[in-house]
Amino acid sequence: TLYIGTDAGVFFTQDLGTSWKVLGTGLPNSPVYDINYHQPTQKLVAGTHGRSLFEIDLSTITVVNKEDLSVNDFKLYQNYPNPFNPKTLIKYSTPVDGHVTLKIYSAIGEEVIALVNEFKSAGDYEISFFADNITSGIYFYRLEVNNFGLTRKMILLK
Question: Are residues 77 and 61 part of one domain?
Fold first, then answer.
């Protein structure tokens, strides 16, 4: 087994790099610069930039195979309220740890704002979007987690 630390977490391969799997460890949003595996204790120590050391007990880790996931495992709920003015709530969930972006786009595809752009652990999340400084209209919000993406439409009425 080969382990690698990246700016998006710790991954491993058991087929010489043909496929990679995510270790669901909940590491902070910080690049992993060094890792060391201690076989007798089955522990992996990850050194991160500015965040110290993290010990990962591999005997208790459940590995998520990216190939086994489908877009149906990720959830992006309809914002509430919709239509809204000037605030709405967006809820989403991800079954895996990974880099998450949640962005708002205009009807012509221009990015308005990035509400989320960071590493998140698997789980359920919600975020408020305040549209005080933008005009009425149709907007889209897009969730991207690793290689998966979902988009929904919302309406701002002022």
Answer: no
